[in-house]
Amino acid sequence: MNLYPIKAGNFKLDGGAMFGVVPKSLWQKTNPSDAHNMIDLTARCLLIEDGNRLVLIDTGMGNKQSDKFFGYYYLWGNDSLEKSLAAYGFHKDDITDVFMTHLHFDHCGGSIQWNKDRTGYEPAFKNARFWTNKNHWEWAIEPNRRERASFLKENLLPMEDSGQLHFMPLSNSNIIENSALGFDIFLADGHTEKQMIPLIHYKDKTIAFMADLLPTAGHLPLPYIMSYDTRPLLTLNEKEAFLNLAADKGYYLYLEHDAHNEIITVEQTEKGVSLKNTFKTKEVFN
Fold it and tell me: How far apart are CA 247 and CA 149, in angstroms?
């Protein structure tokens, strides 16, 4: 098995929204904001090469939305999913499976693109199966008012229309063991219904792709929860359970949205679970 970090682009969001009820005087110590109160974020996806299978976890925002839409997110830098894949010798047509932790636009927008004459949409990965779960899919296609702006029809319905959409079977517990893609999955409902956190067993390590359960290293303190979460008290409990597990088992936490910290480990301290070490992906994916 080989693992490759895939940078699908960089953006900014309001720091207050990213940290909920936590005062700026606290969160800006780890995530400094600009003059508009925006903090640096990224879409750090992950490519798993395992035998004949190429699994891409999440796909970023994509590029099919309008300039007005992207103007809200202050895009920065030159990273793109296509360029990042090419840097490792891959093309979108090589991808066999696209696993989406959840269907908010910044996690799945790159899965669907304009067709050649821009009259409609088509899968960006024509040879891939798109993976979500039935509970989350139904939650996304009939969205609540809180999340409606994050679940975009143009990102979702073309997956179903293409026949490439597949549902990951759920389990009776909060962990799906040895899923159809070869990794375990931790299920979390606080941010959105049935978000899926991959647990990838790589050599002697477990790599946890943290998605929005832990957006950045600055979100390690339990009350540091995004305003975007639909059930923040549930997030708090899920974070606590997962971080305790990560500390006890020595998981490597792969941070999808942290623009400056790629992978971290955590440890138990008198004040609870805290940051232990920070790594570049190349230090862990050796």
Answer: 35
Structure tokens given for 161: 């229309």
| Number of DSSP helices (H) and strands (E) in the chain, helices first | 9, 15
Supply the pLDDT for residue 259: 97
Q: What DSSP state is assigned to residue 66?
A: -
Q: Which of 236, 207, 202 is nearest to 222 (CA)?
A: 236
Each domain of the chain, given as residue ranges in start order, spans 2-284
Q: Who's near 256: CB < 8 A, 6+ residues apart?
A: 42, 43, 44, 45, 58, 101, 107, 209, 210, 211, 212, 215
CA proximity to 169, closest of 160, 177, 161: 177
Q: Taking CA 107 as the corner, what is the angle to CA 105 and CA 110, rounded to the nearest 5 degrees?
A: 75
What 8-state DSSP symbol labels residue 33?
B
Task: Report pLDDT digits (tens) over 98-120.
Answer: 999 999 999 999 999 999 999 99
Residue-wise pLDDT for 129-153, tens only, equals 999 999 999 999 999 999 999 999 9
The percentage of residues in the chain with a pLDDT greater than 90, rounded to a whole number, is: 97
Q: How far apart are CA 210 and CA 42, in angstroms?
A: 13
Give me the CATH code for the 2-284 domain, please: 3.60.15.10
pTM of the model as a whole: 0.95
The percent of the chain in helix, strand and coil, each rounded to the nearest 5, is 25, 30, 45
Phi and psi at 227, nearest 5°, equal -65, -20
